[in-house]
What we know:
The protein is 40% helix and 14% strand. It has 14 helices and twelve strands. Helix 7 (186-199) links the parallel strand 5 and strand 6. It is globular and about 60 Å long. Residues 37, 100-102, 128, 174, 178, 206, 208, 243, 245, 251, 256 line the site of pyridoxal-5'-phosphate.
Amino acid sequence: MNPRLERLHAYPFERLARLKAGVSPPPGLTHIAMSIGEPQHAPPDFVVDILRASLDRLGSYPATAGLPEMRAACAGWLQRRFKLPQDSVNPETMVLPVNGTREALFSFVQAVVDDSRAALVLMPNPFYQIYEGAALLAGAEPFFLDTTAATAYVPDLDAVPEEVWRRCQVLFLCSPGNPTGAVLSLAYLRQVLELADRFDFVIAADECYTELYLEEQAPPPGLLQACVASGRRGFERCVVFHSLSKRSSVPGLRSGFIAGDPRIVARFLLYRTYHGSAMAIPTQLASIAAWNEDSHAERNRGLYRQKFERVIPILADVLNVEKPAGGFYLWTDVGGDEERFARDLFMTQNITVLPGSYLARPAAAGQPNPGAGRVRISLVPNVDVCAEAARRVREFIVNR
Ligand SMILES: Cc1ncc(COP(=O)(O)O)c(C=O)c1O
């Protein structure tokens, strides 16, 4: 077997299952799952209808590059959403469909990393766990950039030593961040572009939460937008990752796309051709409709806003809860042992949340785990269930 497999960590949900093993919550209370970031709003009818109506297309193999209409819908959405100049995203050379960003984030690193050199893959810490596993299996070392209250929940680029930048082959960004919800500003993204030029690395911008934000008038900026603002036209060294899972509440559709630097996209397409990761044609047809339609995404984002508005006032005087700029998580300081908090909350209130330390690592030996003392609460159940959960969390804290 590949010895690099030994370096993978247990996935957070495995650790959570171990933490909960043998604990019995009170039988009268229904379970509320707030640990997994799985959207639970109803998928849009028009997407489901198209999927159903196109099942006869299962009779042929899809192309890895996807249908031209799929790539065009993705390019069109990028240009609308990020106010990019018309025709700045060439759907023929700059876009590829992927079966959800999870597999794309993983396979991208396998295609990009040159392990004949001592490669580093830089990532925020805490982070979406795929970044680390992808780096390890590609033969690179993960390098963690802590995102704590002290850094306003964004990686402190100025704190990264020059020799680390020199070895960096891929820098992961996540905006809005999972789990912090922090949004990277255009100025920040432009600074990253300068670093990428100077040290010649690829920026992998995970923007899968970019459609979930608090201020309707202020959507989070994206990396391609920063490219245009910096006068770059070819998106050199940049690849963005987008998904319908959160935007359209269809995590089971497994539909996303990547876009950016055409030289990187062409090599990634070659990799994917061998990897065998073409998207089924019915999935593409349903996805085209979803990317071409924005009002359902606005309604979806409105539901998450309602949850923050209902939940935060219930918790505000017993827990340090802050409204995030984007995403659907509360990244909450519980003032102590986060594993114990999660286990006792499950035991007394039958609510599952995720200990923050499971999403992070000590950046170096002897350093603290930046997720310690926090839990991630996913506001994915419906508005009333989230409010009920907040009342139970409140009761748990008051009676602790
Ligand atoms: C930060 C981040 N990136 C990527 C993904 C993967 O999403 P999908 O594969 O559904 O596009 C997730 C899922 O929770 C996530 O939280």
